């Protein structure tokens, strides 16, 4: 039976499916950020609060001024157990996909890298990585839709190639609209 000869109830389903497909295909890809620290810029330090901020690839790393230091090719931390955080420039959601963790011996040996994924201040993901050797960590779906990621260590560490994605607002709106249209049409059919 050709699509033109199908019953009338078929048409709303076809339109709904087309709307979903258009939203998913035409909504645009997520904006990807890769923090490589290849040529780190200046660190802004607020002298009144002693909070430092480093900006790269649409993201900001912040924390007490002694908690991190971007040098050519890596972000160093673990000078003490004080955490520093990664978030989007201007706020908003992002997904942490992967990063490289390398041990750095600051005189007290390797330790553990502690990473926490936060959504509006609530921890939704965590991991503890052994810093006895370098590793490339690929993260699962628990690390999607975060507002902040916290890094701390019980020993010295370096981070590099931090890959994060920011969802495009247009693709989220189109996908949501298409799904609502499809559900509405399905209920009427």
Describe the fold and architecture.
The chain folds into two domains: 3-28 and 170-188; 31-167, Sandwich (Jelly Rolls). Helix content is 20%, strand content 42%. The chain has helices spanning 10-26, 169-188, and strands spanning 31-35, 44-46, 51-56, 59-64, 68-71, 74-77, 84-88, 95-103, 112-119, 122-130, 135-138, 148-153, 157-166. Strands 2-3-4-7-12-9-10 form a seven-stranded antiparallel β-sheet, with no helix packed on it. Strand 3 and strand 4 form a beta hairpin. Helix 1 packs antiparallel against helix 2. The protein is globular, with a radius of gyration of 22 Å. The two termini are 20 Å apart.
Spell out the key features of this protein.
globular, single chain, 189 residues, six-stranded antiparallel sheet, 13 strands, seven-stranded antiparallel sheet, Jelly Rolls, 20% helix, disordered N terminus, alpha+beta, 2 domains
Task: Provide the CATH architecture of the largest domain.
Answer: Sandwich
Largest sheet: 7 strands, antiparallel
Low-confidence stretches: 2-28, 171-175
Return the structural class: alpha+beta
H/E topology pattern: HEEEEEEEEEEEEEH
pLDDT averaged residue by residue: 81
% residues in beta strands? 35-45%
Domain tally: 2
Tally of separate helices: 2
Strand order of the main beta sheet, please? 2-3-4-7-12-9-10
What is the straight-line distance between the termini? 20 Å
Determine the fraction of residues in helical runs and give it as a percent range.
10-25%
Q: Tell me, what is the CATH class of the largest domain?
A: Mainly Beta
Shape estimate: globular
């Amino acid at each position: 039976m050709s699509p033109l000869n199908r019953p009338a109830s078929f048409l709303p389903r076809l339109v709904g499916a087309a709307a979903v497909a258009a939203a998913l295909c035409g909504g645009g890809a997520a904006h990807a950020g890769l923090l490589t620290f290849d040529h780190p810029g200046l660190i802004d330090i607020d002298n009144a609060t002693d909070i430092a901020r480093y900006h790269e690839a649409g993201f900001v790393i912040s924390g007490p001024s002694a908690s991190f230091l971007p040098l050519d090719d890596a972000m160093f931390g673990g000078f003490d157990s004080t955490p520093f955080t990664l978030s989007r420039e201007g706020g908003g959601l992002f997904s942490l996909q992967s990063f490289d963790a390398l041990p750095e011996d600051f005189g007290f040996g390797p330790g553990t890298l502690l990473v926490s994924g936060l959504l509006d201040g609530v921890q939704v993901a965590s991991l503890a990585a052994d810093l006895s050797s370098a590793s490339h960590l690929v993260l699962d779906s628990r690390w999607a839709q975060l507002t902040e990621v916290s890094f701390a260590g019980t020993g010295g560490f370096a981070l590099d190639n931090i890959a994060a994605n920011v969802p495009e607002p247009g693709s989220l709106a189109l996908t949501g609209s298409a799904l609502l249209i499809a559900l509405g049409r399905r209920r009427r059919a």
